[in-house]
# Entry
Amino acid sequence: MANETFGMANEKAAGEEATDIIWEPLIRDSAAAESAVEMEEADWDPLSAAVAAKEQKMLEAALAKSPAAAAKQEPFDPLSRHVAAATSSDPLSAATDPLSAAAANRPSVPTSPGVSTGGAALVLSDGAGDQGESVSCFVPWNTRKTSIVQNFTTTGTIQMPSFVSVEVAKAGRGAGLQARVQAIEDTADDEVSMVRYNAREYVTNMTTLNEELARAWNNEERVKALKMAIECARLLANTSTPQFYPSLFVLVTEILDTFGSLVFERIKQKGLTAEGRAKKRVQVSFDTCAGLF
Amino acid sequence: MQDFGPRDVTEEARETCKNWFYKVASIREIVPRLYMEMAIIRCNQFLYGYAEFDETLRRLSVMIRGIGDPLLAMYARAYFVRKSWDIDTTSKAPIAQCLSDSAATLRQLSQPYWQKIICSSPAGTKVDMAAYIACILLLI
# Structure
């Protein structure tokens, strides 16, 4: 009882305190809020390609089940109309178009949908077609690389470490242990000198540098290769010429990739146990087998 | 892809591998260190197999946040995404993290200060900001 009254009194006090603050609903201008967010028309929808592919797939599945129904649908098929416009205006040729288009795309598809397995084959091959379509918008790295190097260039000069190939040759030929140690100390001690090049020279030099790194590596000059790779990676920390940076990024990551794969391959050759190698062989034969299928 | 695990690797190779990682880890500056580690990231397979890639990728994706320069950070992320795609296409979380970080960095990069730096070259060549950003995004 006492507790209750206490609680009530408490509530009352809280209520009195609350009367000091007057809560008012704020009228929100929803139109203004909406316009505050800038709406931009997307000019490219990543899903559209997938949707189109899906629609085509559905259409062809329907076609496989009932050719008659599909034939009725024909005039509304944008694909056939497109192809008809491209080839001829003959409505008869247009009537067979979806099939022939499918056959042209995938030569292995049987063109007789009347056969019960034909439908399955169509759908299956369509799956492969989907994959091809999604991959087709993916520009291969090599193409992209070239375009970046061509587009992002500068008229200024860029710094670059100079690795003289003479040094590699000298160090590589050292026969005795003494000479080798000497060579490593030399490489470790010498300061990396910086040279300035213009963009074109730079690209050529980086390409040679890439080859040189591989050569140094094969000449048992791993410390030097590591040093070269680190020096190249260090270049990326320099943003003094942002116009050239994309190209620089491409060139340097190329070198780093080379380096990474060299390290990986070496350790792999050195250290896989017999079991691991066998596993790999199994994997290879598995791949071959899958390829055959 | 999973052709061998840590059990298939000899002790010697393991040591060599560790040695490489130690060498790379001793680089003082963060940018070369990150890039070098990303370059040899596949060698983790010798030490831990595929189980540890997730953890390594997560660590790297967070480490890239340590790069203050937004331009450098963007490109480092681009390289990171490329490498992680190379080794493990199933690991999505670090890549997603990278992309969301990139969005923040991109906002920073679109500030007037950075626009001025990117667009004005010492020799006077004009760079289209939109093209520049698009190039970075395409890399990612």
